[in-house]
Amino acid sequence: MEYRDKLVLAPMVRVGTLPFRLLAAEYGADITYGEEIIDHKLLKCERRINDVVGSTDIVEKGTENVVFRTCKEERNRVVFQMGTSDPLRALAAAQIVCKDVAAIDINMGCPKSFSISGGMGAALLAKPDLIHDILTTLKRNLDTPVTCKIRLLKSSQDTIELARRIEKTGVSALAVHGRRVADRPRDPAKWNEIAEVVAALSIPVIANGDVFEYEDFHHITSVTAASSVMVARGALWNASVFSPKGKIPWEDVKREYVRKSILWDNDIKSTKQTLKEMIMHYSCLEFPEGKAVIRSETLADIALLYGEEKYYKFVNENRLLFGGSR
Ligand SMILES: Cc1cc2nc3c(=O)[nH]c(=O)nc-3n(C[C@H](O)[C@H](O)[C@H](O)COP(=O)(O)O)c2cc1C
User: Fold this and answer.
1) 112 and 133 together in one domain
2) Which one in 36, 219, 243, 297 has a CA-CA gap of 20 to 30 Å to 5?
3) CA–CA gap between residue 135 and residue 132 (Å, rounded)
4) Does residue 187 sit in the same domain as residue 66?
5) pLDDT in tens, 82-101
6) Domain range for residue 313?
7) Same domain, 278 and 199
8) Which residues are known to be catalytic?
9) 149 Cα to the center of ligand 1, angstroms
10) How much is the pLDDT for 321?
11) Separation of 108 CA from ligand 1 center, angstroms?
12) What is the ipTM of this complex?
């Protein structure tokens, strides 16, 4: 996997499932991260080929609960992001998915109490020895590229020291979210501190934070000298941010997202959450559209809401035709 000059869709819980990743790629994202999945959850899963949808599914054993869905089309650009606090558990979990993805990434930035209390996400930032063990265990035992995503530490010097230690493990790239653990999303990302990490390392650094327009890709690269750029909210609100031709109206992106959700039989909770995030940004969940999304229980409800009933019927009547050809 090449990490230079790439536009990257950031990992986003509930949002970064297959339809959203394919949508971002269609507009121009080169690398697309999946949502974070915890190793414990993955270890309860098995890999299944889904001929009906045309996907490869990681499914909770004994259930039909799809934890991760991917397809051949994205094999060379999809990054599986994992939450972990243990090297051997991370390895066992990674082995379940590594043949179907382009890279495995470890989340070292999540500030949520669920992650921290499990010793995962940003909790790892205070444990450089554990970071080292997790990354070297994965590196030594997998053929798949391994990366990680961190936040800034209290001082630039601390961040640089940790980044250097991470580089020594042999990871293929390091994504740096330019905020500290205690920062809020509205606090400006510190591109200057990402620049200091870039200057201290020789592996590719992926700069992340506050990219909302196509022009920002150039802007953040010129400030940080990072190899690649990662976007979360800018893409969530309008995935066509990756398009060099400029953004298209968000309603059009939303419609395409709905169609892709139907085509890939996306988890309804993921589709609802993604639509809610878009609506919250541009409109209001209290308006009729928002209320109707909240009320929806199935993809058929969503199809009806967005006038895609015919497409829904067509896809579901021809599933085997679609799935088999993928
Ligand atoms: C809805 C949402 C879900 C997120 N989920 C994850 C995640 O699963 N893993 C992760 O490392 N970061 C996650 N993040 C953080 C983003 O990947 C990114 O680091 C952060 O939003 C800063 O980028 P931005 O300024 O482009 O939004 C999430 C962010 C959002 C908005």
Assistant:
1) yes
2) 36
3) 5
4) yes
5) 999 999 999 999 999 999 99
6) 250-325
7) no
8) 110
9) 10
10) 72
11) 12
12) 0.99
